[in-house]
Amino acid sequence: MSEPPPVSGSPLRERLHEIIFEADTPAGKTFDMALIAMICASVAVVVISTMESMQAEPYASILYVLEWLFTALFTAEYVIRLLIVRRPARYATSFFGIIDLLAILPAFIGFFVPGGERLLVVRTLRLLRIFRVLKLARYLSEAAALREALYISRHKIAVFITTVMIVVLISAAFMHIVEGNYGVGPPDESGNPTVGNPDFDSMPNAIYWAVITMTTVGYGDVTPTTAVGKGMTAILVLVGYSLIIVPTGILTAEISQQRSRPITTRSCPSCMLEGHDRDATYCKRCGQPLEPERHADA
Amino acid sequence: MSEPPPVSGSPLRERLHEIIFEADTPAGKTFDMALIAMICASVAVVVISTMESMQAEPYASILYVLEWLFTALFTAEYVIRLLIVRRPARYATSFFGIIDLLAILPAFIGFFVPGGERLLVVRTLRLLRIFRVLKLARYLSEAAALREALYISRHKIAVFITTVMIVVLISAAFMHIVEGNYGVGPPDESGNPTVGNPDFDSMPNAIYWAVITMTTVGYGDVTPTTAVGKGMTAILVLVGYSLIIVPTGILTAEISQQRSRPITTRSCPSCMLEGHDRDATYCKRCGQPLEPERHADA
Amino acid sequence: MSEPPPVSGSPLRERLHEIIFEADTPAGKTFDMALIAMICASVAVVVISTMESMQAEPYASILYVLEWLFTALFTAEYVIRLLIVRRPARYATSFFGIIDLLAILPAFIGFFVPGGERLLVVRTLRLLRIFRVLKLARYLSEAAALREALYISRHKIAVFITTVMIVVLISAAFMHIVEGNYGVGPPDESGNPTVGNPDFDSMPNAIYWAVITMTTVGYGDVTPTTAVGKGMTAILVLVGYSLIIVPTGILTAEISQQRSRPITTRSCPSCMLEGHDRDATYCKRCGQPLEPERHADA
Amino acid sequence: MSEPPPVSGSPLRERLHEIIFEADTPAGKTFDMALIAMICASVAVVVISTMESMQAEPYASILYVLEWLFTALFTAEYVIRLLIVRRPARYATSFFGIIDLLAILPAFIGFFVPGGERLLVVRTLRLLRIFRVLKLARYLSEAAALREALYISRHKIAVFITTVMIVVLISAAFMHIVEGNYGVGPPDESGNPTVGNPDFDSMPNAIYWAVITMTTVGYGDVTPTTAVGKGMTAILVLVGYSLIIVPTGILTAEISQQRSRPITTRSCPSCMLEGHDRDATYCKRCGQPLEPERHADA
Question: Is the CB of B216 less than 8 angstroms away from the CB of D216?
Answer without folding.
Answer: yes
